[in-house]
Amino acid sequence: MSGSVLRIASVQMCSGQNIQANLEQVKHLIEDAVRQDAHMVALPENFSYLDREGKKMDAVESLAHGPAVQLLRELARVNSIYIVGGTVPLAANERVTNTCLVFAPDGQIIARYDKIHLFDIQLDETHSFMESRYIEAGKVPVTFDALGATMGLSICYDLRFPELYRVLTGRGARVIFVPSAFTWRTGAYHWLALLRARAIENLAYVVAPAQFGRHSAERESFGHSVIIDPWGQILAQAPDRACVITGELNLEYQDQLRERLPCLHHRRI
User: Which end of the chain is more exposed for a tag (fewer CB within 10 A), N or C?
Assistant: First the structure.
């Protein structure tokens, strides 16, 4: 690995209610990313279990013994890679948190981010989501250091709140992760536009692993996992299937862009 070029993989899945089957697929996809020489692998939101939000307690994890957490610890350690672990549900009083864990090559957890913005919407008479009934919102933006760069964490609906990304960039984030399960109805119009906007306005790399396809009669995700450069160019985009995409993130190129277009230093508000 060159000191200024990071090879990062983004995983696309169609997770369901069978936790074991989901984790088997995660294992195969991460191993595929390793074969593609990825230094870091990012998983989508709800990779271990995806159903209506009220059923998240069926898949609640513990940091000590949860099957998804233990699998990612082992895969990070055996393959000597970083893993941005999508999201898993962790117990929080009578609710759960929707939590992204980052694993270092020794298998240790080096960052935890609990989703701040909860998806409470009524799209129409038959499509509604009310995450706040079951999920405890996070309160703290999170960055971490890996592969010689500061990186920031966000999750799905967070994408609509640019102030979070300003905070992450203000803390030095050069790469921002957006593990997601964007609905098909909103994703078809907003997913790529919002991701490119977050990349452009922060002159940051954006890595967005996503769920795709129909998970149940009530739930369908848009997919289109992408890796976007600081100029807003799409470096890689997933087809409509479970797969791994990779991108080379060039930090020297990013430095040049930030020097030539120093908008991050021109803020007045």
Answer: C
Q: State yes or no: is 156 an active-site residue.
A: yes
pLDDT band (50, 70, 90) for residue 2: low
CATH of domain 5-265: 3.60.110.10
Closest of 144, 120, 135 to residue 89, by C-alpha: 135
Active site residue 125: no
Residue 42 has pLDDT above 90, yes or no: yes
In the numeric block, the tokens 């980052």 are attached to 102
Q: Among 61, 100, 131, 156, which one carries the catalytic annotation?
A: 156
Q: What pLDDT is recorded for position 57?
A: 74
Query: Which one of the listed residues 14, 61, 100, 115 is annotated catalytic?
Result: 115
Pick 119 or 241 by higher pLDDT.
Answer: 241
Q: Is 45 a catalytic residue?
A: yes
Q: Using a cut of 0.85, tell me whether the model's pTM lies above it.
A: yes
- C-alpha distances in angstroms, 238 versus 156, 160, 226, 245? 17, 22, 6, 6
